[in-house]
Specification:
Elements lengths: L2 E3 L2 H31 L8 H20 L1 E4 L3 E5 L6 E4 H7 L16
Antiparallel strand pairs: 1-2, 2-3, 3-4
Helix pairs in contact: 1-2
Amino acid sequence: MSITIRSVAAKVNYAVGPFVILIGIAAGITAIILTWVLESAGFLMLFLPSLLAIGAGVFILWAVQRSGLRIDAQGFSWCGALKAPQSLRWEQVHQLLPPRPAAPDRRDRPAA
């Protein structure tokens, strides 16, 4: 069984990404219609920002799909939006903090 944990901000980006793409598509259509109706090529300059908005929306969706903390039977792995994925196996976690040797309780010793 594998569990993926994402922050609330990452979950919000599932809605933000498509909205940014839709705004980019609407801006591109508006630029083409304004150029055609007003017969001025200057409005085609608005087409470039619309392409950038579409690319930004796709990037947001890609980043939210990639980022998160995944826990499975072998260990856990995490990945940010831009950094390389990293993982840690359960055996490595157990080696980080070895168990302490059993020491007598200080309360049982007589006061000096």
